[in-house]
Amino acid sequence: MVDMNDKYEVNMEDLEDLFRDGVAIAKVPEKEMVHHPSHYNQFKRETIEEMRLIFGDEAVIAFCKCSAWKYIRRADFKGKKTEDLKKAEEYMDFIVKIQSEIEGK
Predict the structure, then answer these.
(1) Read out DSSP for the chain?
(2) Phi-psi region of 21 (alpha: psi -120 to 50; beta: other; left: phi over 0)
(3) Count of Cβ atoms closer than 10 Å to residue 33 Cβ
């Protein structure tokens, strides 16, 4: 569990880039709600990549696990089960990506 009172080391140069470069990037078709939906792409980097810079990989992995669980848990009740399961898969894929980068694979 992440203690919100913990201090996170933030590279101020990277953080400044996040705000200075906050320009819109190419949009993804509106119907795409799983892989990089358009509301995730309003800035140079996706929010989850910004989260890695600000909070670190361990916190983002925990966030992704929780988000995947949320989509799996509620998939039967929202009316778009396949879409929600794909969203959960997207979060799990992101965990694999981060872990592979950490392990240098």
Answers:
(1) ---TTS-----HHHHHHHHHT----PPPPTT--SSS-GGG-SSSS-HHHHHHHHH-HHHHHHHHHHHHHHHHHHGGGSS-HHHHHHHHHHHHHHHHHHHHHHHT-
(2) alpha
(3) 17
8 A C-beta contact, residue 65 and residue 95? yes
Let me know the angle formed at the C-alpha of 86 by 60 and 101, rounded to the nearest 5 degrees.
35
Question: pLDDT for 36-92, tens place per residue?
Answer: 566 666 778 888 899 999 999 999 999 999 999 999 999 999 899 999 999 999 999
pTM for the model stands at 0.63
Q: Give me the amino acid identity at 94.
A: F
* Cα separation, 31 vs 39, whole angstroms: 11
**Cα separation, 48 vs 63, whole angstroms:** 10
Indicate left, alpha or beta for 29 from its phi (over 0: left) and psi (-120 to 50: alpha).
Answer: beta
